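INFO batch 0412 | record 1 of 1 | parsing
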Amino acid sequence: MPKQNETSIFVIGIVVMKGPKTKIAPRPRGRPRSEQAQQEILETAYKLLRDKGFNAVGSHEIAKAAGVSSATLYRWWKSKEEILFDACFEHMKPILAIPETGSGLTRLRRYILRASEFLASEEGTVMARVLTGIHEDQRLRRMFLERYVNQRRQILRAIIEDSIALGELKPTTDPELLIDMLSGPLFFRWLQGHAPLDKGFAKRLFDNVIHAFQTQ
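INFO prediction complete | emitting tokens
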């Protein structure tokens, strides 16, 4: 006979004994440990990037400051550059999120205003460190385009194409040209520093540029 706390299963007249029942601990709630560890590494990398600059930060330094091994870093990222890119982009996401509601022109306007705020913020300064660090490296510039710029331009292009389809913008509107005309002056003021980069400038920029593309 099975002992206490044991179970038996009858299979075609044969008693198959099973061991004592064990309770399975419930899975802890909240973010999985691996995801939490990645976020902690990215936060550490961001602080180092902010304080020291792109080229002055090494992967071993990131690992040591985050309290993990270098092997742990390379389990999730292929290089130091990828870690720093992701660290920078994680901080950019909330600020530069592209609005999902409203008409196409309303969404574009909100985005341009957010972009001007971002460039004038601490996060904008950190991104400047990234751009400075990768300026002479074609591989890193291509990586930056693929991981951030191209994806964002694709979303903006879709918004502009919707505005054209709805009759808000002229059928002849070139989405790529419009994106450059809206964002180019922001980056120019950001890099040159010859005049304030504020909401007032962003509003005037948007209104004047869009006027040339709007239907009458």
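INFO post-check: The first helix runs from residue 33 to 52.
INFO record closed
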